[in-house]
Amino acid sequence: MLLLLLLLLLLLLLLLLLLLLLLLLLLLLLLLVLLLLLLLLLLLLLLLLLLLLLLLLLLLLLLLLLLLLLLHDFYYYYYYFFFYYYYYYYYYYYYYYYYYYYYYYYYYYYYYYYYYYYYFYYYYYYYYYYYYYYYYYYYYYYYYYDCYYYYYYYYYYYYYYYYYYYYN
């Protein structure tokens, strides 16, 4: 009986050992599962971080694109403004040049017209003067001639009268 008891005790010990071993195995398995869960959690966290990083990169890219669009618009407006300014300047210069040319032309025309008028006036004056002079001269000549003729005639008449009176 003692042997039986001993055997039973041994069996119990064995069972206990087996149970402890099983418990240890279970604990190890649980630890392994926990480790795996931790690893999975870490992997998930890493994935989440990567996703966040990707999202941040996408946001940065979007911001850059927006900035580029704004800059492009600004550049376009600036270019347009510059072009408009250049066009305005060119138009102003052209207008000024045209105005200057017109003024020059008008001045030249006016000067020419004035000169022509002056020349015409001078010519007319000269002609008038010449005509007046000629008329005066003619008048004078005519008068002189008339006077002379009259004088001559008078003299002749006087002479004739004198002669007639004297000899008759």
Automatic annotation (TrEMBL):
Source taxon at top rank: Eukaryota
Record field: transmembrane: 37-70, 77-96, 116-136, 148-166
UniProt source species: Dreissena polymorpha (Zebra mussel)
Protein name per UniProt: Uncharacterized protein
High-level lineage: Eukaryota, Metazoa, Spiralia, Lophotrochozoa, Mollusca
Sorted UniProt keywords: Membrane, Transmembrane, Transmembrane helix
